[in-house]
Amino acid sequence: MTEQDNNKPPQQTSPTKRRVVLAIIALVFILAGGAWYAYAKLVLAYQEETDDAYVTGDQVSISSRSNGTVIAVMADSTDMVKKGQVLVSLDPVDTELALARAEGQLSQAVRQAQQQIAQAAEADAAVAQSEAAYVRAEEDYQRRKPLLAERAAAKENVDAARRQMEAAKAAFEQAKASARAAHVAVDGMAVARFPAVQQAEAAYVSAWIDNKRREIRSPIDGYVAKRQVQAGQHIQAGQNLMTVVPLHNAWIEANFKETQIAHIRVGQPVTLKVDAHSDMTYHGKVVGLTAGTGSVFSLLPAQNATGNWIKVIQRLPVRIAIDPQELAQKPLQLGLSTVVTIDTHDRNGSALPQQPADKEVMSTDIYQGQQAAARADAQAIINANLVAR
């Protein structure tokens, strides 16, 4: 290459080429802006998102129905427990003594009821006996009375016979009254239906159940949290011992701004991102909107009528159910942070439920059958104290 070639000025880009490049760049920006506008109108306009959302769920407080001393703690924090599993055992001495006293009182009530029945029968026999005495006295008087007119009997003897008849009649009336009183307490009732027996039976059933429940059991499946009870501790009835959390029934409480809730409806689909499981997207649906903002239900709700009012955007808790299969695949602990996105395309639903709840929110059957078993034992005690007649 010659020195003359090196000294040539660089070729200038033609105006036409520059215009083409600028037009292409402008078209790219226009297309990007159009795409964003379309995305905003077709997608973002039908989504509501918040990161003020947390996993929450039921927290079942485990407590005792009676006072007692703890002799064993069978589950610790983080342990999984099954429904009906024994969590805490109390010293059985007091409840067993109370049960023994109730058994003795029931036996005594059954015996006394039979004694009352026997006394009514005895009163009937006394009526028959006094009636016979009255009949004899009346016959004796009727025999002596005509003899007085014929002067065949002394007046004193006739008067004595009359007095004996009147006394026998009075005794007969008294016996009948006593028999009626005795029968009022026993007629029309079997031994087991006597009020005293029923009261003693109820006391026995109560003592039986108290003795059974000295073993404090978990009412549900779940995981133990906040264990506070210790072996040897004397606890009071109703005292919180530990908490069982059923993680299979967790849900999301998402706090949306009041400017976001206009198009949120029950049943709308939801996508959930959980910080603890960033590799998985959970799905769910809107269950309902709370009846008030969080500030309304706070311990010290704000009073805006003081004159020093500053408007603060409020947040309304929205309850979101999580897909149970996804929740079973990766359980979520209470309190975990989530990012919630609600798809509001379908806005035909209601913002609040229109029908009352028709199913149990939570239930347990671990106590079923205890009363029937206690009554069966009470009936056995009653039968054992019946005396054959």
Task: Give an overview in words.
The protein is an alpha+beta fold and 389 residues long. Among the domains are: 47-58 and 249-300 and 309-343, Efflux pump adaptor protein, beta barrel domain (Elongation Factor Tu (Ef-tu), domain 3); 60-92 and 211-245, RNA polymerase II/Efflux pump adaptor protein, barrel-sandwich hybrid domain (OB fold (Dihydrolipoamide Acetyltransferase, E2P), Beta Barrel), CATH 2.40.50; 95-189. It contains 7 helices and 14 strands. The chain has helices at 3-6, 15-42, 93-149, 155-184, 195-212, 324-329, 370-384; strands spanning 47-56, 60-63, 68-73, 80-81, 86-90, 215-217, 222-225, 234-235, 240-245, 251-257, 269-274, 277-289, 315-322, 337-343. Strands 1-10-13-12-11-14 form a 6-stranded antiparallel beta barrel. A 4-stranded antiparallel beta sheet has the order 2-9-7-4, with no helix packed on it. It has a 4-stranded antiparallel beta sheet with strand order 6-5-3-8, with no helix packed on it. A hairpin with a 2-residue loop joins strand 11 and strand 12. This is Membrane fusion protein (Multidrug efflux system).
